[in-house]
């Protein structure tokens, strides 16, 4: 009888503790979420740019972009120091002829990856300065639609 009473008492005490500790668990989860928003929304991998050959004034930057956020992320524009003009382009096939068109915005859905790659989506760099063509790494700045920006380095590679 005494034992049963003890058990009931324990349950009576344990229950409120569980109820109190459960919300703090949720609080921790939301702290994690806010942590995530302060980190870079896009994970950049394998970033490189095509080495600029003598006489050439343009090049392209390629990379793999993964949206690590829970909401979609859009790239509005790209900036590179030492280049006159930087645009997002897409190569496409028009009756056997490879052509390029402007891409105003690139939206990456949550947890999805978009590849900027030769023959597809790419960052077109026009009017390359003499300084830029010497660089082994160039700094690329992505301007996102939420007003933030994200930068990374792209390594020079021979095509
Ligand atoms: Cu292009």
From TrEMBL:
Keywords: Signal. It comes from the Bacteria. Residues 1-27 form the signal peptide. InterPro entries: LpqE-like, Lxx211020-like, PCuAC_sf. PANTHER family: BLR7088 PROTEIN, COPPER CHAPERONE PCU(A)C. This is Copper chaperone PCu(A)C.
